[in-house]
Amino acid sequence: MQKNKSKSSQIILIILSIAGIAIMGYLVSLHYSGDSDSFCNLGEGLSCDIVNKSLYAKAFGIPFSIFGILYFIGIFLVSIFKFNEAWLKASAFFSIVFLGPSLYLSGIEFFVLENICIFCELSKILMLAIITVAIIALKPEKLKLKTIGVAVLISILSGFLIYVNHSRQVEPGKYTVFAKCLYEEGFRMYGSKGCSFCAKQRALFGDAIHEINEIECDARYGATQKQIKLCVDKGITHTPTWIHEDEDGNDITKFPAGVMSLEDLSRASGCELPAED
User: Fold this and answer.
1) Which pLDDT tens digit goes with each residue over 166-177?
2) Is the sign of the CA dihedral 192, 53, 107, 24 positive or negative?
């Protein structure tokens, strides 16, 4: 590696990794925060809260942001202490590997959650920049096509394994009967598509959430005038809010706003949860 080019590449990698550490550090704190407000929530369809507090924010019980911060710390340490051809190749290789799960999560943001986490997407841009800088710094040495192919293959397999992990968190149809019972007993969920805690509540039900017939309270997410008036009349100030209503829609019990466990809903309603396997 040429000395001037090498020094410039090293500085760029250090800057990129520090930016990545800062972003991932923020996302880690956001994931564990009980607050639903974030300066990264930029409006309809642009919410870091919804993405980072959804069930898709973890793989095998570990938040993706933790994997991300470890990755960027690794790049930082390599850039400071191990800036040589062997470690640059390793940095490029593992960056390609980590892109698979990252791009899978982008798909979840766009097509499932229908919300984009700007900081999450920015971290992927940083990863692409790290790969580019590492490859440029290696010249005239090149990253072999076979090495790139192996990295891409592992990347795809990693994304698939995470998909399998997510798909098994709630067995399809597991809570359908329970959710129908809740609705029949007069349990109503008042929520919003733009609410991160509502996303957590929905995740507990899996595909059975459709049986709940959630009442949308936010006009930005398609609430009708009738729904908005109902939410106002019910005094809904935070979502999700569960209310046990009689046949005429009068309140029997209004529960404190927030995510309710399925066990609490079962005790309050008398609806039985399915037996655990």
Assistant:
1) 777 667 788 999
2) positive
Place of tokens 């990863």: 127
**Tokens standing for residue 118:** 């700007």
- For residue 243, the cross-strand partners are 188, 254
pLDDT of residue 175: 92
User: Residue 243 in 3-state DSSP?
Assistant: strand
Domain annotation for the chain: domains and CATH numbers: 3-167 (1.20.1440.130), 176-269 (3.40.30.10)
- Cβ-proximal residues to 205 (8 Å cutoff; 6+ apart), any chain: 170, 175, 179, 211, 212, 262
| Average pLDDT of the segment spanning 247-263 | 93
> Other CB atoms closer than 10 Å to residue 86's CB: what's the count?
9
The number of CA neighbours under 13 Å toward the Cβ of 220 is 9
Helix (H, G, I), strand (E, B) or coil at 187: strand
Backbone φ, ψ for residue 187 (5° rounding):
-90, 120
